[in-house]
Amino acid sequence: MEAAPPPPRKIIHIDMDAFYASVEQRDDPTLRGKPIAVGGGGPRGVVATASYEARPFGVRSAMPGARARRLCPGLIFVKPRFEVYRSVSAQVRDIFSRFTDIVQPLSLDEAYLDVTANKAGIVSATRVAEEIRRLVHEETGLTASAGVSYNKLIAKLASDQNKPDGICVVRPQEGEAFIAKMPVRRIHGVGPVTARRMQALGIETGADLRARDLAFLQAHFGSSALFYYRAARGRDDRAVHERQDRKSVSVEDTFFDDLTQEARLVEEIDRIAANLWGRIERSGGYGRTVVLKIKFADFRIITRSRSFSAPVRSAELLAETGRALLRGQLPLRMGARLLGLGVHNLEGEPHGDDQLALAL
């Protein structure tokens, strides 16, 4: 006799609302109701998080600070306090642990939870999510948004639907229709470059993606085709699992046009270094080895590295090392389609089918 299929999972994605900015507004009442950005406002500064008051002006995370100031002249920059954010994140993780041990943190401010069999014995995953959100607000003074669904892909998309301080539930029978209306650029796993390629092929929504067969997607997207094919049908079999300790922290960007000019290459490395430094500080993942990655127009990849006797603990040293590694390869043999920078040898612990009925 054929074994019965396993019951659907009950997955929650919790995403704290404008986390760093909300912590700053909580701790400093003079900032409440004002457009603020956590990060650096200088020439090489980068916005880590913008408050909801700043977002209507177009201020977004990872945006250069100088551009953010131009978009929002009244923007208030606040220096990050990552130790405080880590402490608040630990409070939130403690709340998660009261309901399940199956928690997969993605960063200080978001995580997946598998509550299929939760400690509280609550049948409804929606009720679990609401209780978590209530406790987060009660114990930290902050708000969190939640997505509740039967897999990780849809739970993450759902958590963004009713921000801030909202919840969105997508049941198994609703998953395919939910994805169909979603712009492909919002589907987790479709990056900006891939989204532009899809748009050029006339694929703008999940419905457009579903209309393409697997052979078409394989011809255009190679090894990622099966993921896109399944995603368009609301399918994702990935389990929630506790993240293993990372061996590295890195940031890389693919460019629409291949880069050849030294000034532009250095500018991009500086920007990538600034983004990487923010990620390093958020995660606490300081490393002794800085690694440069270059992918050329012919898709050949090279890496170059420099190791230090102690972990790199300054944004200036990180950027300086990245520039030196890059300049050691100039002039490039051909245009660069991707640049990346990472730190390795970390010290310490880094912190960042048939559809069945489901009682969500």
TrEMBL record:
The UmuC domain sits at: 11-191
What is the protein name stated in its UniProt record? DNA polymerase IV
From the Swiss-Prot or TrEMBL record, state where the protein is found: Cytoplasm
* UniProt cross-references to Pfam families, sorted A to Z: IMS, IMS_C, IMS_HHH
Q: Which UniProt keywords apply?
A: Cytoplasm, DNA damage, DNA repair, DNA replication, DNA-binding, DNA-directed DNA polymerase, Magnesium, Metal-binding, Mutator protein, Nucleotidyltransferase, Transferase
- Say which species the protein is native to: Sphingobium baderi LL03
Q: So which cofactors does this thing need? A: Mg(2+)
**CDD domains, alphabetically?**
PolY_Pol_IV_kappa
State which gene encodes it. Answer: dinB
